[in-house]
Design goal:
Elements lengths: L1 H22 L8 E5 L2 E3 L5 E2 L3 E6 L2 E5 L7 E7 L3 E6 L4 E7 L2 E7 L9 E7 L1
Antiparallel strand pairs: 1-4, 1-10, 2-3, 2-10, 4-5, 5-6, 6-7, 7-8, 8-9, 9-10
């Protein structure tokens, strides 16, 4: 009986450590620069503009290029899978790891559109 109790205690400890590690894994919002493909409309598949750069630094994401849906958005929630940013004009930006690349999506909840734009970026 004592061995079974030690097994349960040891298992619970391991689960707690795993949860703590998942919650405190570094997210994308720690000062990185990215080279991104052109924006893509997810409904039509058409590309918008040319390749551009983006930067995540100090809890904000910035986009540099001609055709950009937003210029800057501030981090509002960080999760190990996605960072969620909010632009001053109401757009929601998500950035999450996708293999060795980063997938960035921009949603327009404040506009009457049925699409969002997305891009895939590489670290510079």
């Amino acid at each position: 009986m004592f061995k079974f109790y030690l097994f349960l205690l040891n298992r619970r400890f391991t689960e707690n450590i795993a949860i703590i590690l998942i919650l405190f894994l570094p997210s994308l919002s720690y000062g990185q620069s990215f080279l991104c493909w052109p924006w893509s409309n997810v409904v039509t598949g058409s590309e918008i503009g040319d390749s551009f750069t983006s930067q995540i630094n100090d809890g904000g994401i910035s986009f540099f290029g001609e055709k950009r849906p937003v210029a800057f958005a501030q981090l509002i929630y960080s999760h190990p899978l996605n960072d969620i940013f909010l632009a001053g004009s109401g757009e929601i930006v998500t950035a999450g790891l996708e293999g060795q690349r980063v997938r960035i999506n921009v949603y327009f909840p404040n506009k009457a559109v049925k699409f969002f734009v997305t891009t895939s970026c590489s670290r510079v």
